[in-house]
Amino acid sequence: MPTAILNLDRCRVTLVSERLEIHAPDPDNPAREILLRTLPLRDVDRVVAGENTHFTSPALAELLRRQIPLQFFAGNGRFLGNFLPAQNHHGLARLRQYQRTLDPAFALQIAGRIVAAKLYNQRRVLQRLAASRATTANRDPSASPDPSHPPAPSDLPTDWLGAMLAQTSRATSLDELRGYEGAATARYFAAWATFLPPDFPFERRSTRPPLNPVNACIRFAATLLYHEAVAFTHAHGLDPALGLLHATENGRWSLALDLIEPFRPVLVEALALDLFSHQILSAAHFDHRDGGCFLNEEGRKKFFLQYERRLERQFLSEAVGHRTTLRAQLEHQATLFKNALDNPAAFEPFLMN
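-> structure tokens emitted (353 positions)
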């Protein structure tokens, strides 16, 4: 159980020996508590909890002692904060990171690789989706698109993304690189949206707040991924606030945003598409409030389960040459970036097969 997700309202977490005990009010007698589950700490790598989850001080202290990060989320899915183990023995690495972040050539080189990997993964996602649709169309003559009238090669978004990918290597500034990334992502989402079921349309991105179920899932997945990257960068002695592709600004962890970019097509958008295409989520799993659309408690339960399965599913990576998981590769990005502070060639962003 790499991740313990505590999504039940008003549960209480205590420490007993080397395990966490999860208690909740007894439905038949709210004055009493019942033991829901026991979690051996050796089986827990991280904890995700709702804002109404109560942790005893010994439980929090033991999480810190074992370097297990804890993330708190509000009832509407908004991230509230990380509870992270102390990391104070990486001063020289951070000094080197500060120097490198101010080096324009280093910033352009690393940011260029990140954008190239993201565009490559966007293209691969669309290629896989198109191949799947073509297979379905061949089985069902009434399916769309018509297999006897394929689009012209110049009209294929995968070809366009391939051409844009080639352009990224010639970018001479971060602003030019950001322009390529923005144009490619807009074209990618326009193509990606055509694979969604008709009941869940996606006209455009909306995040604050998300305006429909698809945007709600994209935002929630990206938030979880982002804060996992924050925890990994902290754990490896990096300052997650110092970005390259995402400029360093107050109020955000720009390096974490950089490192998750290649994972967005593979995890965030692919997960959202699966949730709706396979009818794992329905309209009943969303609440419309505060001017936006958010996953409700039951929706979050289903979402967390699929998110964890996707992050922990093992696959044989052609890039690294062995079996791995998306979560392991996300942490590996922090390691590679730290190595790249002295050897920029060491940084290789994640590429899907």
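Residues 129 and 195 are 8 Å apart (CA to CA).
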